[in-house]
Amino acid sequence: MNQSAHQAHAYIRPQFVDPRTVVEVKKLVTHYGAREILHGIDLEIREGEVMVIMGGSGSGKSTLLNTLLGLLHPTSGSVRILGQDLHSISDVQRTKLRQKMGVAFQGGALFSSLSVLENIMLPLREHTRLDVSTMRIMARLKMQVVNLDGFENLMPAELSGGMIKRAAFARAIVMDPRVLFCDEPSAGLDPVVASAIDDLILSLRDAMGMSIVVVTHELESAFRIADRICVLDKGNILLVGTVDEVRATDNERIQNLLNRRTEEKILDPDQYLRNLTAAND
Ligand code: ADP
Ligand code: MG
Fold first, then answer.
1. Contact 138, 174 (CB under 8 A)
2. pLDDT tens digits for 80-112?
3. What is the CA 230 to chain-centroid distance, rounded?
4. CA-nearest residue, atom 7 of ligand 1
């Protein structure tokens, strides 16, 4: 992580107790009905870092993300975002806090009846009283950031998978959030497009000093973009560390998790089908 970026932010934003911590999760427990899903998670996300939350299917990644977004209420424990307790502040305060949190949802979550530009302008319409021409300019600027300029008037149905992700990112950052959350940003994309999305995430961190939380099960992507990785397994954190630390760990369960991924790849049903078809050609 970039140390000088930290210092710059610490100077500009002195109002926080620890300016380097943007998200602080303490002893977080969540349930679905009677079933406990997260078993007491402790996690800190620092200013200007990309934190990747990684784990196999069903490990609790989405549950953790939804709790960090305030969409799911914890049974106990706390989530502090930019110094505020997300689950105990008033609705008005939470709405204000949410304006500093950008979210790029997995499927893009674009409105199909609105153009790309209109989709990206939505948060501005909702949260500001800027005039439309100003909102257009702001949305266009963000489209440039994600390399979508020129596509303002397309409808979501006309976009490729990678473009939908880019549009979702543009909408997520249109309010200049301090923290950006992304759910499976490279899932379902071909490797070249996926790696371009990874580059975009890194450029948002570097150019805008954004703190970024990425949920993914894609190991290659995690290793490429993470400043730190949080490995989740069955609702517990196995390890929080740098890429090198995760690679070097002799924790057997983490090694299994890393190895299991390659097995899953080989057993990917689409690949299996393609192999079969190729054999018949
Ligand atoms: P991941 O995102 O890592 O795949 P999830 O957070 O979606 O994992 O799920 C964690 C566990 O919680 C899983 O065992 C899943 O079956 C369960 N779960 C997820 N969502 C719900 C829900 N809405 N109701 C009940 N159980 C759920
Ligand atoms: Mg999930």
1. yes
2. 999 999 999 999 999 999 999 999 987 778 899
3. 13
4. 62
Closest atom of ligand 1 to 60 CA is 6
DSSP 128: -
61 lines ligand 1 (CB under 6 A): yes
Question: pLDDT category, 193, cuts 50, 70, 90?
Answer: confident
Q: Give the count of alpha carbons within 13 A of 160, CB side only.
A: 7
By most ligand atoms within 8 Å of CB, the mutation choice from 28, 31, 41, 63 for ligand 1 is 63
Question: Any idea what DSSP says for residue 242?
Answer: -
Predicted model pTM: 0.84
What DSSP element (H or E) covers 37? strand 35-46
Distance CA 173, CA 200 (A): 12
CA pair distance 47, 102, nearest whole angstrom? 15
Tens-digit pLDDT profile for residues 71-81: 999 999 999 99
Q: For the packed helices 132-145 and 161-173, what is the interaxial angle rounded to 10 degrees?
A: 130
List alpha helices for the chain, DSSP H.
Answer: 3-12, 61-68, 91-98, 116-127, 132-145, 161-173, 191-208, 219-225, 243-248, 252-266, 269-280
Q: What is the pLDDT of residue 74?
A: 96
